[in-house]
Amino acid sequence: MIPRYLIDVELDTLPVVEKDVIVIGAGIAGLFTAIRSSEQHSVLMITKKSLLDSNTRYAQGGIAAVISEDDSPAYHRQDTLIAGAGLCDDEAVDVLVHEGPKGVRSLIKMGTQFDLENGEFALTKEGAHSQRRILHANGDATGYEIVRALSETAMSTPGIEVWDDHFVIDLVTEDGVCCGAIVQKPSGERLFVRGKATILCSGGAGQLYRYTTNPEVATGDGVAMAYRAGAYIRDPEFIQFHPTSLCYPGAPRFLISEAVRGEGAVLRNIRGERFMHKYHEQLELAPRDVVARAIVSEMEETRSTFVYIDITHESAEMVKHRFPTIYQTCLTYGLDLTSDWIPVAPAMHYMMGGVKTDLNGETNIKRLFACGEVSSTGVHGANRLASNSLSEAIVYGRRIIKRIEELGPNDVQPKVVNKVVRSSVSMQAVVERRLKLQKVMVRYAGLRRNENGLRKGLEELKRQLPIFQATLTEREQYEFANLLTCALLTTEAALQREESRGAHYREDFPAKDDLVWRKHTILHHTQGITEERIEHV
């Protein structure tokens, strides 16, 4: 149904660019791996917009690592495993909690300036963390500070070439080995970039949903192209909805960070009543999926499109100092975080599943690596612990670089010829289809799911399959094909998993079923859906 390549291609006819390491995407994963790779290799970074357009840039809360003497890797491990609801990979979590502090030191070496208090790192606590272990920068602009520091380093590193506004259409493989990628230049010309190693750092798929905290560029390109190339996609049903995104006329779905609740904010329904005590003993600091569903329940009960987050009982000085970005953004829309209750609602935030990798970030396709949100390392399980994503990108980025150093030259000569009879598709049709796809996902594969809805959603999505027989030439068309691929994978996996666990909630199977479902969902281009049992206790 979904073809191996999105376009007609005869590899021999394309101009070839040779590089040691190809990094697809920006963000913390792309920038970090590019900088570290460039110490020994020639590196090409390809971004479809610019170095500053990524999910990392919008990360407010911070980066989780064991820094404090009161904390320990064992505590961090336990918190991660609890949040992951039985689906985390023990070894992957061990790697994260033990190597996280080293990763933070690497970021500091590259120029990231984390907030200090009395000469020590200013550590904060977030939902489902037992200790203060979140480092932040400029209060609530951690992601932006990391991207600033890493971008400046990358731009001034001679071994890194950056191609902005270039689109990677497909990965090129031969006999289970990745040889590089087919790339489209802003002019529309296509070329083949050959490499010793290819690293997917293309981020998530927030644009699957109408309401998301992700930027426009988050269209699941990496997951989709890896799937077409024969990589295993693991657990795509686990989509994290952030409970509190700004919900106000004329305003984007801006994130009101978890850290606001960590610093004492409470949630109220439109009647002004606190309600989290009805849903979880940890109240506002319960796991994200619990808080998000609680908010939806309150919205339904009070027939409202939002609830309020209220931090007005804390001092105005603390709020402005700790959350300058959130404070300023809300002010732009006439809302004062220090004196107003802020209207919020859940929005798609992060995908826990992705391209399956081993502990070195390598996929089942040799020489193809995945890092950051596009990957499924096994760290996040069924629900990511807040602020573990930035540390995961650094920790596994370091491991990918070590693995690439062990690789010899890539001698595989790919012979790709792909020709199909194709129809044409208008740009307007693609824009309309994208909106329709987002509505289908919100309605049938959102925060609460059931068999009837998922089947209906799958049916509607499959009506869009003719896009793969069309002649695609524009970025928006490729993006829609990639979103459709990810939507199908997410919906199929959600239909398969007949239980509720972490961020996946089935109204028709509201309980967690460890006996049958403590296993991963695996999707493959030719093998279809399979399962992977979890052997450890």
Automatic annotation (TrEMBL):
One of its GO terms (molecular function) is steroid dehydrogenase activity, acting on the CH-CH group of donors. One of its GO terms (biological process) is 'de novo' NAD+ biosynthetic process from L-aspartate. Its EC number is 1.4.3.16. Keywords: FAD, Flavoprotein, Oxidoreductase, Pyridine nucleotide biosynthesis. It is found in: Cytoplasm. InterPro entries: FAD-dep_OxRdtase_2_FAD-bd, FAD/NAD-bd_sf, Fum_R/Succ_DH_flav-like_C_sf, Fum_Rdtase/Succ_DH_flav-like_C, NadB, Succ_DH/fumarate_Rdtase_cat_sf. Its cofactor is FAD. Pathway: Cofactor biosynthesis; NAD(+) biosynthesis; iminoaspartate from L-aspartate (oxidase route): step 1/1. Its main location: cytoplasm. Residues 434-528 form the Fumarate reductase/succinate dehydrogenase flavoprotein-like C-terminal domain. Catalyzes the oxidation of L-aspartate to iminoaspartate. This is L-aspartate oxidase. It comes from Paenibacillus agaridevorans. The lineage of its organism: Bacteria, Bacillati, Bacillota, Bacilli, Bacillales.
